[in-house]
Amino acid sequence: MSSELTELTNHFFSAPLIVSTGLMLFVIAYWVISILTGLGLDAIDFDLDFDTDADVGGIDGFMGIGLLPLKWLNIGAIPLMLWSSIFAVAFFFASLGVEYYQPLTEEAATGVIAVRVIWVMGVGAIGTKFITQPMRSWFKEHALDHHEFIGKQATTRITTHPTRGKIFIERKEGDLISEARTAGEEIPNGTRVTVVSYDEIQKVYMVAESRSTGEETINNNEETENV
Question: Which pTM value belongs to this model?
């Protein structure tokens, strides 16, 4: 019995399985601590509340496109630790299955082992995608009320004009990056703007430079009074 347990332990901690085994142990430890301390699903979490349209250029376009695989895998759509737990199980059993049908020899090169781990990890991620797909509706937040941002301050993330633009809005629930347009002016990247309205047809925010909404006039009046 002792020798069988030792053999099983050595197998789980062999080079092709050590990554998936380590991840499983981490997840198990997390849930044990969670039960003992009352940690919730959102103890380790982040928000992916981004508009990732592919027509945005520059670094923000690159970052937006980079988020697409994460959103496709449902990362951010459900609590991160729940997703990670399901992924850990899928990755672990995929590793066991692959190692059972195509075992690597002890002399296998590190590069061969690394490639094996990476593509099995991909199999686990795809499996997690389909397992978590029905769960999206369980954690779906209330629809975003676009009109609540009217009058709020934002920052342009690219040069914004009547046909193209993007803004960054800070909020407690998670920062929002969304499409925006102007009524005719061209606003450079990094400019502080005010959300004027929401265009229901284009599904974009209409913005203007903050000084055009009356802030400059107010400041001028205050300076005049002080003089």
Answer: 0.54
